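Shall we go through a protein fold together, starting from nothing but its sequence? Label the sequence line and the structure token line clearly, so we can match residues to local backbone shapes. Would you write everything just below, so we can both look at the same thing?
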Amino acid sequence: MDEKTDEKGGAKAPPPVVEPTGNRVDPAGVLGASGNESLSYGDLEARKRAKRVPPFIAAFMPNRAVSVGAMRILMLIELGIALAIWITSPFQVLPQPGEVLKALGDLWMNQGLGPELFTSFGLSLEAVALSTVISLVLSYLTVLPVFRPLVAALSKGRFLSLVGFSFVFTLMVGGGRPLKLMLLVFGMSVFFLTSMASVIAQIPKEEFDYARTLRMSEWRVVWEVVVLGTAAQAWEVLRQNAAIGWMMLTMVEGISRSEGGVGAMLLNQSKHFHLAEVFAIQVLILAVGLVQDYGIGVLRRLTCPYADLTLERKDA
């Protein structure tokens, strides 16, 4: 019987090869049941040891993925630590959590915080929608060289202050809600445009070449590679700029106080040094912003489920 065949006449698997590092490699892919034929014995042992590490120890080790349950426990622990620091804070100017909750109840029941929040949330959603459409259209137009200088110039608007444009926008659209909407759209669009144009500019050349090998026209390449290929990044940029909108919302509503809003209420409470009420409004804005951020993340996962498949630190 030939040395290269087994008892049944089949080809024998070649013996493990010893690398200079001392790891034995399985060239026949016997160890590659998981689909990775190039794994060495040392790599497999390292992965086994990694799985035996307790979750809370793994949380202090770099580039480790932990389970969703372990991450929730870590979040609760860190939230408890933050509350403990807040309660025991030596700064007398900071209101206690009980005072903030009491102020929040009074604002909601007696001072119309609910309707003001609804007004501000509607304004924020409208600004997010308009800024997204404007920024995406301009970003996608950067595939045409004639639009690249224009987009580059508009992106520099992120260094400008909204206060300096309030008078100009007032002359253009008048006051009230149109003024607030214009200020928000301008402030969000310059940041959205900067981020999205950068995403499109960093698309690898190989993706364009691959689309061309499929005999796509250049406009079809733009649709497949630029528009659909960056959809997941567009959702992420949208999340970031929606948060920026909430940061600017209070200032914009302070510039034009018609229709009210949580920004106008926040400035009124701050003017009279009602710190508990100020903290209560801030906590409410934070909660609404987190819910909105989570909702955008859910939409991203539903429309682009492939986006996180290759992430190193994806939750286990």
